[in-house]
From TrEMBL, chain A:
Bilayer-spanning residue ranges: 21-44, 50-69, 76-97, 109-127, 139-164, 170-188, 195-213, 219-237
Keywords from the UniProt entry: Membrane, Transmembrane, Transmembrane helix
Lineage: Bacteria, Pseudomonadati, Pseudomonadota, Alphaproteobacteria, Hyphomicrobiales
Name of this chain's protein: AzlC family protein
From TrEMBL, chain B:
Keywords, in A-Z order: Membrane, Transmembrane, Transmembrane helix
Domain of life: Bacteria
Organism: Pararhizobium antarcticum
Pfam families named in the record: AzlD
Protein name: Branched-chain amino acid transport
Length: 245, 123
C-alpha cells in the first residue's frame, strides 16, 4: 500500500484501498468464507443463495445465525430478531468509523451506501489504517477496500462452492473451525474498551448455558443476559477503581 | 402463497420466498443497524454508559455464537471429540497470549492443533 504518499487523486486512493485485499485480515476473512461456504454446502443452501447472502448481508456472524435459524425451522420474525440482535454491534462500529472517514462535504446518502461494507474485517482494517490517508481521500480508500472485499468474497463463494463438498475431511474441518477461532482472536485483539473482554468471556459461557436452559432463544438470552452481566461487572469494577484511587 | 402455507418459515427451494426471507431477516436486519450507525455517528457519545452496554450485549451475542460453533459444530466436526476442539482452542489461546496477542499466531496454532488431532484420529 502506498501509505507513504501524502496526496494523490481519489482514484489512487481507491486503488490503494483495493490493494488491501492482499492484507492479512482480508486473507483470513477469505479463508473463513471458504469455511462458511463448506458450512452452507453441508446445510444444503443452494449456491445462488449463498452468493446472494454474501453480498446482501455481508457480516459473517449474521449469516451464520441466519442459516442456523433457517435450519432450526425458525419463522421470519424469529430469524429477524436473532440476526438483528447479533448485528447491533454494527451500529457502534459504523458510528465510530463515520467521523473518521467523512469530510464536511460528504453527502449522507454516500455514507449510508458505504456503511453496508462495514463488518468486523473492514472495520478493523479501516480503523487501523485510515489515519495514514489524507482526509479528503478516506471515503475513496474505504470504498476501494470495502467494495473489493465484498465482490471478491462473492466470487470466491461462487467458485469454491462446488469443491468444498469434495474437500478432504481434515481440510473441511479446519476451514469450518476457522470462523469461530477468527472471531475470538479478532474481537479480542481489536477491542478498545475493557467491557469487550468481560463480555466475550461471559458470552462464551452464557451461550452453552442458555442453549441448555432454553435452546430456542439461547443466542438472544446469552446476548442480553450475558452482556448485561458483563456490563454490570465491568462497571462495578470501574467504580471500585475510581473510588479506590 | 407458499409463505402463507408455511406460516412464515422457509426452505431453501422456495424460490422467490427464500430470497425475500434472506433479504428481510438478513439484509434488513443488518443494514438497519449500519444506517442507524451512520445517523448516530456524529451525535453518539463514545464515552456514554448506554453505548458501553450496547457493546457488551453485542460482544456477548457473538461470543455465544462462537461457543455454539465450537461445542455443537455441524458437518465433519460433529464426529470429532469435544476434547480435541477445546484443546485446539486452548492451544491457540495460549499461543495468542504468549506471542503478544497476534491474531494470526493464535488462529494458526488452533487450526494446526485441530488438523494434527484430526489426522492422528484417522479422519
Amino acid at each position: 500500500m502506498d501509505v507513504g504518499q501524502s496526496e494523490g487523486t481519489g482514484r489512487d486512493w481507491f486503488l490503494a484501498g483495493m490493494r488491501g485485499i492482499a492484507s492479512l485480515p482480508a486473507i483470513i476473512l477469505m479463508l473463513s468464507f471458504v469455511g462458511f461456504c463448506a458450512f452452507t454446502a453441508q446445510a444444503g443452501v443452494p449456491v445462488e443463495q449463498v452468493v446472494f447472502m454474501t453480498g446482501i448481508v455481508w457480516a459473517l456472524p449474521a449469516k451464520v445465525i441466519l442459516v442456523g435459524s433457517i435450519m432450526s425451522g425458525a419463522n421470519l420474525l424469529t430469524a429477524f430478531i436473532a440476526v438483528t440482535l447479533s448485528s447491533i454491534r454494527l451500529m457502534p462500529m459504523v458510528a465510530a468509523l463515520i467521523p473518521e472517514i467523512r469530510t464536511s462535504r460528504t453527502p449522507t446518502w454516500l455514507l449510508l451506501l458505504l456503511s453496508h461494507f462495514v463488518a468486523i474485517t473492514a472495520w478493523v482494517f479501516a480503523m487501523e489504517r485510515i489515519q495514514t490517508v489524507p482526509r479528503q481521500h478516506r471515503i475513496a480508500f474505504f470504498a476501494g477496500f470495502g467494495v473489493t472485499l465484498v465482490l471478491a468474497n462473492m466470487l470466491l463463494v461462487a467458485i469454491v462452492y462446488r469443491f468444498v463438498a469434495e474437500f478432504p475431511p481434515i481440510i473441511a474441518g479446519c476451514l469450518f473451525f476457522l470462523t469461530p477461532v477468527y472471531f475470538l482472536a479478532s474481537i479480542w485483539s481489536s477491542a478498545r474498551h475493557p467491557v469487550i473482554y468481560v463480555a466475550l468471556v461471559i458470552g462464551l459461557i452464557a451461550g452453552p448455558f442458555f442453549y441448555w436452559l432454553a435452546p430456542e432463544f439461547d443466542i438472544l438470552l446469552a446476548g442480553v443476559g450475558g452482556g448485561t452481566l458483563a456490563w454490570v461487572v465491568e462497571r462495578a469494577w470501574r467504580m471500585k477503581q475510581r473510588a479506590g484511587t | 402463497m407458499a409463505n402463507e402455507a408455511k406460516g412464515g418459515h422457509m426452505s431453501w427451494d422456495d424460490g422467490w420466498w427464500a430470497y425475500a426471507f434472506i433479504a428481510i431477516a438478513g439484509w434488513l436486519a443488518t443494514d438497519l443497524w449500519r444506517w442507524l450507525g451512520v445517523l448516530a455517528g456524529n451525535r453518539l457519545r463514545e464515552d456514554s454508559e448506554a453505548l458501553n452496554w450496547v457493546r457488551a450485549v453485542a460482544t456477548a451475542l457473538v461470543a455465544a455464537v462462537v461457543a455454539k460453533l465450537i461445542l455443537y459444530p455441524t458437518g465433519i466436526l460433529e464426529q470429532s471429540p469435544l476434547w480435541l476442539r477445546l484443546g485446539a482452542i486452548a492451544a491457540g489461546t495460549l499461543a495468542f497470549f504468549v506471542f503478544r496477542q497476534k491474531p494470526a499466531i493464535g488462529i494458526g496454532t488452533a487450526i494446526a492443533a485441530l488438523g494434527i488431532g484430526l489426522f492422528l484420529l484417522g479422519f
